[in-house]
Amino acid sequence: MEDTFYYYFLTCLWSLTPIRLHEIVDYYGGPKEFYEASEKDYEGIHKKTIQTILRTKSEDSLLRNWENLRRDTVRFIPCNSPDYPKEFLQLPDYPFGIYIEGKLPHELDPEGGRSPRIAVVGARNGTTYGRETAFRYAKELAMSGCRIISGLASGIDGAAHAGCLDGQGYTIGILGSGIHKIYPKENYKLYLSMRERGGILSEYPPDLEPYAHLFPRRNRLISILADYVLVVEAKKKSGSLITVDYALEQGKTVGAVPGRPCDVLSEGCNHLIRQGAACVTDACDVLEELADNPGFLTVRKDQVPVNLSLGLAQDEKKVYSVLRLEPQFVDDIITAIDFPVWKTVSILSELEIKGVVRQDPHQFYYRIQ
């Protein structure tokens, strides 16, 4: 049996925590030695763990899936391969192998430098404002030469991937399931685009279903692969903040988009800012953090779309100046402007048509440029 198989076998033991699996493999001297050990050699390991190991080794599907993988579009890269991301090896519980469709970030970088990598994370049930912000920031960062990393979840993650693709950039999604089991299903079309123009990565076998406890675990891969972690919307206790915890342990820079104090989905971001995270109000805030790193290819702030006039008439400029990225109720906008109600509402409609303002279903307006 070729050596790569033994690393593949280890990824099939996904129900064991990565740290525990590393301890066991180290004890037996390596992946091959561990696989070839007999049941009596496993003395000292917890009984349930032994049952998991023996069951996985005896399953007919183990060899069948291994043979299928060799004919699949999914690549399996063991941790002893030169193609394996070197960043992962910094983790004490690095995956013994990864599965990838598309390209890894380092495979696109020229010799002598690499593009900055930004992880954009946030709430699965993000607001319209949050999704629009994630989309726009990711697009502008992509246009400036950055790679975008996220988890291909609904809400903020999906918006960030879509924004990067819209900016003709490279984005990679790191999954909490197997690559053949995209979750949520609503992101399947996004997955198809990403595997052609970006990458999809998982540490789990391709046909593994999404299990809730696997998603927090994958966050360590998102943060270690990134140079900067940007949180767009998050509750005070959320999976996004698990990514932040990993990032801080790894010495990464963390930024957060501020939100309204009364919003539950802004609590996490506002808390991070109070704790010292960078306050990010546009893509240039992120680019300025990256500009002085000599290891990066030059980031291009001039590529971020800036259009101060937007081609607006004088009255339109006055209404537009009152709006913010955070949604505002229409009555508050009317109160802030010395125009008749009908005129303010008419101008807001014109601004929507021009694509610089949006309205949510509850008559809250916000600017998108």
Features:
Arc Repressor Mutant, subunit A; 369 residues; elongated; single chain; alpha/beta; 12% strand; Rossmann fold; three-stranded antiparallel beta sheet
Instruction: Give the total of beta strands.
Output: 12
Note the overall shape: elongated
What fraction of the residues are assigned to beta strands by DSSP?
A: 5-15%
Q: What is the subunit arrangement here? A: single chain
Helix content: 40-55%
What is the H-and-E element order? HHHHHEEEHEHEHEHEHEHEHHEHHEE
Describe this structure in words.
The protein has 3 domains: 1-71; 105-303, Rossmann fold, CATH 3.40.50; 314-367, Winged helix-like DNA-binding domain superfamily/Winged helix DNA-binding domain (Arc Repressor Mutant, subunit A, Orthogonal Bundle), CATH 1.10.10.10. It is 41% helix and 12% strand. It contains 15 helices and 12 strands. The protein has helices spanning 3-11, 18-28, 31-36, 47-58, 60-69, 128-143, 156-166, 188-197, 214-225, 239-249, 267-274, 283-290, 314-322, 330-336, 341-353; strands at residues 75-78, 97-102, 117-121, 147-150, 171-174, 199-202, 228-231, 253-256, 278-279, 328-329, 357-359, 364-367. The mean pLDDT is 89.
